[in-house]
Amino acid sequence: MDVPSDEPTEPTGADPVPLVEPADGVPPVVADAPSLRRAAEALAGATGPVAVDTERASGYRYSQRAYLVQLRRAGAGTVLVDPIALGGRLDPLVEALDGTEWVLHAASQDLPCLAELGLRPSALFDTELAGRLAGFERVALGTLVERLLGFRLEKGHGAADWSRRPLPADWLNYAALDVELLVELRDVLEQELKRQGKLGWALEEFEAARTAPLPRPRAEPWRRTSGIHRIRSPRQLAAVRSLWEARDALARERDIAPGRVLPDSALVEAASRNPADEPALLALPVFRGRAQRRMAGVWMGALQRAAALPRTELPEASQQHDGPPPPNRWADKDPAAAARLAAARAALTAIAEANTLPVENLLLPDLVRRTCWQPPADATPAGVAETLREAGARTWQVDLTATALSEALNTPTPPER
């Protein structure tokens, strides 16, 4: 009798067939209310899951809104929707898709901008997440389509400025291909997950992704400025913060990506040099351009506000965390916690390898660190299982890890040095 293997199915080895255009051609973009109603009626009368994708303008625009929505369903073909031309009002589409399963690749990237349009799935299948759970090392859409379906997708426009109008024909071709084989890929991955005995795990993960709350704004987002590690002085950090906030306000108002208003390197350079006046600021390399000369007063005002802050309002040298310290400091701060973490990581790595899946999908690294830094009062398998469930771990994750994590939490305290 054959025993299901956790190893993903090997490809056939045949050369992939280039897929350069959709089988039915590229449909016209839905950009008015009558066209939207007709497209919604076609999708509502179709059958099976609906493939969904979006195109944004990250790197070009401040917002993360969808500038194109692609859908495909058996019996309706592919639909390309311009939500900007429609003013974001996609009510007929919302009704047409109610109760259908959506197939997305890397759903967490698309669900927030779809939710802005009122589009929320009743059920979800994430092909990227399915690929990870099935043990595929490379889970990009093109890679999975090539390996599992034998087609090579057209590439080249994923990072384009999708806010551009009109959208070029080759971009629309690329966008339509993104949903051309998504349902077929879903079906193959479902069978692979069944073969490995992991479909139940995947369904739990899909539901968690579907119902996950929208991302919250980061605390002190200015600390993510590239190159800020070179800044040490609290006064200089205040200058980076002030410049970042001024840039962010401008970028938000104009709907331009912040880096296109002023690059991070300029924020760090100005904070480090501390120019005394506008001429000194404009002498810095990044500020010599015409656009920055026009904005010199804005940037100089930000620097002056930072310089005028009382010492009590200067930022701390490093961001305050509500969780444990970085793991590389544990050995000095709490050797017992460091021993627990080392044991937990070893045990979880072994479980992940035995089940052919990434260890970060087995249990979130942050949850592991928090549990090892401050273990539950009841560190038995049952107590650890309850702690993991309260933190949002799925049933399959708890079943696989609670006992091993309990043993790690009871690792003997190392002797003092």
TrEMBL record:
It comes from the Bacteria. SUPFAM superfamilies: HRDC-like, Ribonuclease H-like. Residues 233-313 form the HRDC domain. Residues 1-28, 312-332 are annotated as: Disordered. InterPro entries: 3'-5'_exonuclease_dom, Exo_C, HRDC-like_sf, HRDC_dom, HRDC_dom_sf, RNase_D-like, RNaseH-like_sf, RNaseH_sf. This is HRDC domain-containing protein. It comes from Saccharothrix lopnurensis.
